[in-house]
Amino acid sequence: MIHPLLATIGKLGMANFTPVSAAIGGALIGLAAVLLMLSTGRVAGISGIFSGLLNLRGEDKDWRIAFLAGLVLTPVLAGLIGYGMAQPALPPNWTVIVVAGLLVGFGTRLGGGCTSGHGICGIARLSPRSVTATAVFMVMAIVTVAITRHVLGG
Amino acid sequence: MRIVAALLCGLIFGAGLLISGMVQPAKVLAFLDIFGAWDPSLAVVMAAALAVSVPGFRLADQSARPWFAGQYFRPGKSGIDQPLVAGAAMFGIGWGLVGLCPGPALESLATLSPGIIVFVAAMAGGMMAHDVWQQRQLTAQRDQQLASATDG
């Protein structure tokens, strides 16, 4: 039997809402960010960790490579125990993928962070810069989806 | 030890993205699509992450130095300037176009999906383009200062 509250939520169009796995996954993301700060003194901002590997200077790359190796290894290990990751659904248009990648790369460098660095670490440190950045990228992403899905997409 | 700790943190972070479903662009876009069949899961992910990280970072603030490093590297918190807002806006548009931000994009390289590889290459290109552009801006500024100094 379905709980009446769940039935109501379903009617609102939240059929895909997964609060339990979202809460468990979110707690793990927060835990990883805290452990990285406590152990290495670094902010778990993925765009910052990744971009630090792109310059030619050889300093300070070891922990970045190790963190990103862990990130990429997770789905491989999960696959070994039967929880393989599905192929991500991407738009069929290569131009959109490339433009989005360029915007994400340039924008996270210019703005000094992404969903993890500003959205989780920065807000947790009560940084006004990060609160502002998170509000701006959330609103812009929502507007972008509204335009592509409901204005252009019909 | 620093490397082992970073590797473990990467694994835990990756597990969090995987379990929460945030590696799936479709699920992220369903959160951003507030005018469609809205899926609030991403908000729960952020709230749960903050529930752990707010007290966790307070703990870090109280300790003099990290376990395996000489000092804490903490980004500045103040100074809301034009690059911050412009950069966040660009990132938001890119994120909304495909539903990928840097963490899930890099983790999804494990699937060897051609689209993901192209996205990550473009993202790296965007980051390097920014750094080249910023270097040029700085050089131009310095040249201007030098020129005005000799004029005066």
Question: What report would you give on this structure?
Answer:
The complex is a heterodimer of chains A (154) and B (152). With 154 residues, chain A is an all-alpha fold. Chain A has one domain (4-152). Chain A is built from 7 helices and no strands. Chain A has helices spanning 4-11, 19-40, 46-51, 62-80, 94-111, 117-124, 128-152. In chain A, helix 6 packs antiparallel against helix 7. The model of chain A has no long low-confidence stretch (mean pLDDT 90). Chain B has a domain at 2-80. The longest helix of chain B has 38 residues, at 114-151. Chain B is mainly α. Chain B has 6 helices and no strands.
Domain count of chain A: 1
Largest sheet of chain A: none
Number of helical regions of chain A: 7
- Rg calc of chain A: 19 Å
For the record, give the distance between the C-alpha atoms at the N and C termini of chain A, rounded to a whole number: 36 Å
* Number of E strands of chain B: 0
Shape of chain B: globular
Rg on CA atoms of chain B, Å: 20 Å
Query: Are there runs of chain A of 5+ residues with pLDDT below 50, and where?
Result: none
How are the secondary structure elements laid out?
The complex is a heterodimer of chains A (154) and B (152).
Chain A: H1 4-11, H2 19-40, H3 46-51, H4 62-80, H5 94-111, H6 117-124, H7 128-152
Chain B: H1 2-20, H2 25-32, H3 41-62, H4 82-98, H5 102-107, H6 114-151
